[in-house]
Amino acid sequence: MSQYLDTILELQRALLDLKEADKRLTGIPDWMRELHEEHKASLAEISTLEEAAEVAAKERRTAEATTADAQEKLKKYQQQINKVSNQREYGALLQEIDTVKRQITTSEEQAFSSLERSEQAQKELEAKREAFRELADRYAAETARWEAEKPGIVEHIDTLKGRIAGYREQLPKNVVSQFERILDRHPAGAMAPVRLMERPGGKGPREWHCGSCNYRVRPQVVVEIRNTGTMVQCESCKRILYLEPAEEATA
Ligand SMILES: [Zn+2]
Q: What is the CA(168)–ligand 1 centre distance, in A?
């Protein structure tokens, strides 16, 4: 097989490894994922409870302010009652007093129920925080273990980058750019092995096909790839075709 194709394959392997290593470095490792999710969910629960407690406390303050206002009014009305001069004014004032008393009852009930809710949320919050402590310790330990693994990955990434630069230097610029364009289109791999396959029903000689998309590859193209190492793209998926060592003898 041509020198180029071998080098392009090596370049591709290094590029795909680099992508994988980058992903590992920036993402959450698989062995930590479950704990990571648990930790995240717990934090979200705590924040929901904190919000509920905050809302209840605010409602309680509002209700208490309403009660205080109404009591102020009630006091004023009760002072006025000695000064009314007729039955009509007296009746109207009694009605006002009645209304304001009802308001006091309502806002006192509201204050009480929001106090209960706030206390309930606080209690749940404390229990949740208590339970979270153990989880947070475990999470910190695993995070530390993960941090300890990172320098190794960084080192691996540096090695890969060095290798990639080397392969690029070994290849003509136009070959590199063509390969990279195809890799952009097919991020999982720009190369496709040609494979000998039985014809349907097993009749007649076996045929060469693109190992990625199954499109037929003419035998003379396969010979060309083997003998001159020409870079040939699959007519259908446009991946660069290559011969695997095991198939090379057959071509
Ligand atoms: Zn193809």
A: 24
